[in-house]
Specification:
Elements lengths: L14 E2 L8 H10 L1 E7 H10 L3 H5 L3 H6 L3 H22 L7 E4 L5 E4 L6 E7 L2 E7 L4 E7 L6 H8 L2 H8 L3 H22 L12 E3 L5 E3 L4 H4 L2 E7 L3 E7 L35
Length: 281
């Protein structure tokens, strides 16, 4: 059996960016050194400066009509801030002003940049107040987030989230640890299928994860393609779990291949856990 010594290194911990003023240098440095970066913030931290920015309509671009037509005030404000954060993070990665970037969406809602910056991969997640953005210039990236205290009943969700091996391992843990580990598995699988472009057609029980003795996370699959992926789970702001999936070995702009170890298997009905999700678009 192949060991985990040759796993791709996981991305560093997500960077907290409290507003448009940054500092953005750590994001630029992370992209230059590792090929990718993950940013986290809260929409409340960005809200006032975003709404007062005279460039808001330009920053939102094609998203301006959706912003204006969103009736619920909280949803409308969170939508605006999340798109502005994405453009600022992408601008830091590409070292260009955020208002020159054109944000669009692929089928299923995955964000991407048109024209300038097409080589940059993007991923977005939000839950409660938290907004998380992943940017990568070297290959697919996916991010997902949930509150650490979110109730994730193993009896209800286990069969939808876990492989038999994962479920058996979780069943031996104390309840509190089992709930947290199930939440980690959920967010890791969400991040991975989002990186594959399959986030809305997932079947999480069809593929699994494992940890080595040092706590490194990898796909439970013995293949070169599986080992090329890097995974991590971090707690940010003391109350949110953020999971990341990144495949740094592909060149800029390359799409996930159908030869990926779970590309075909991670397709199916989302099942009842979909009602539990807090949203990522």
């Amino acid at each position: 059996m192949t060991g985990t010594a040759d796993l791709a290194p996981p991305l560093p911990a997500p960077l907290h960016i409290a507003g448009p003023e940054g500092p953005w240098e750590p994001v630029t440095d992370a992209v230059e050194s590792t090929g990718a970066a993950v940013v986290h913030t809260t929409w409340g931290e960005w809200l006032t400066v975003t709404l007062l920015d005279p460039r808001l309509r330009t920053l939102l671009g094609h998203d301006w009509p959706r912003y204006r037509q969103t009736r619920a005030a909280v949803g409308r404000l969170r939508f605006a801030v999340s798109r502005v954060v994405m453009k600022y993070a992408a601008g830091a990665a590409l070292q260009v002003p955020p208002d020159v970037l054109d944000l669009a969406y692929k089928p299923g809602g995955r964000p991407h940049l048109r024209g300038l910056g097409e080589e940059l991969e993007l991923s977005l997640a939000h839950t409660d107040e938290l907004i998380v953005v992943g940017v990568s210039g070297t290959g697919p990236i996916g991010v997902d987030a949930e509150p650490v205290g979110r109730q994730a009943p193993f009896e209800l969700l286990g069969e939808y989230v876990c492989t038999p091996a994962e479920a058996a391992a979780l069943a031996t843990l104390p309840e509190a640890e089992r709930t947290l580990r199930l939440l980690q598995l959920w967010t890791l699988k969400e991040a991975y299928t989002k990186a594959l472009g399959q986030g809305m057609r997932r079947r999480f029980a069809a593929f699994g994860f494992r940890r080595d003795g040092e706590g490194r996370i990898s796909l439970a699959e013995e293949s070169e393609g599986a080992r090329a992926w890097a995974f991590a789970a971090h707690v940010v702001q003391g109350r949110y779990l953020v999971s990341t999936a990144h495949r740094p070995s592909r060149g800029p702009g390359d799409a996930p291949s159908q030869d990926d170890p779970v590309f075909a298997k991670a397709v199916g009905m989302p099942g009842s856990p979909g009602r539990w999700r807090s949203g990522d678009r």
